[in-house]
Design brief:
This protein has one domain. Helices cover about 85% and strands about 0% of the residues. The protein contains five helices and no strands. It has helices at about 1-25, 25-35, 40-70, 75-100, 110-135. Helix 1 (about 1-25) runs antiparallel to helix 3 (about 40-70), helix 2 runs antiparallel to helix 3 (about 40-70) and helix 3 packs antiparallel against helix 4 (about 75-100). It is elongated.
Length: about 140
């Protein structure tokens, strides 16, 4: 379990760096060419930044989950890992898609990813508590 979690954490981190670099360079040029007004350009770039930021936060959280799983595997850590991964895909994924497509309804799905992330943090807290309680 720990190995898979660490691989997903590293993959999410690497992808976050790639998407962050794209947002800082390629996306800035692209939004100007899409014919959007300056306020919408700024909003899309800021939204992209939020997606990358939350992806990176949760890649680091997954790293912590994986390292805890190396020490002492627990079902709660698996729940945390799955929740963080799902949260990144839904939260950040929908924001990336919204920025690239302009489909506003995707914004309504984003909070579900946020809920998954919260579930991951709660599961991590419970797993950590139980892990240290039994030592």
């Amino acid at each position: 379990m720990a190995r898979r979690i660490l691989i997903v954490a590293a993959s999410l981190g690497a992808l976050g760096v790639i998407l962050g670099a794209f947002g800082a360079h390629g996306l800035q040029t692209a939004v100007k060419e899409w014919g959007l007004d300056p306020a919408e350009q700024t909003k899309r770039l800021e939204t992209w930044d939020v997606a990358v930021r939350y992806q990176m936060y949760h890649a680091l959280a997954m790293l912590a989950v994986g390292l805890l799983a190396v020490r002492k595997p627990a079902p709660g850590l698996a729940v945390a890992a799955i929740s963080f991964t799902a949260g990144v895909f839904v939260f950040s994924g929908c924001l990336y898609a919204l920025v690239l497509s302009g489909i506003k309804i995707l914004g309504a799905i984003v909070p579900l990813g946020g809920v998954a992330m919260i579930v991951g943090w709660v599961a991590l807290a419970i797993a950590a508590w139980r892990s240290f309680e039994s030592t």
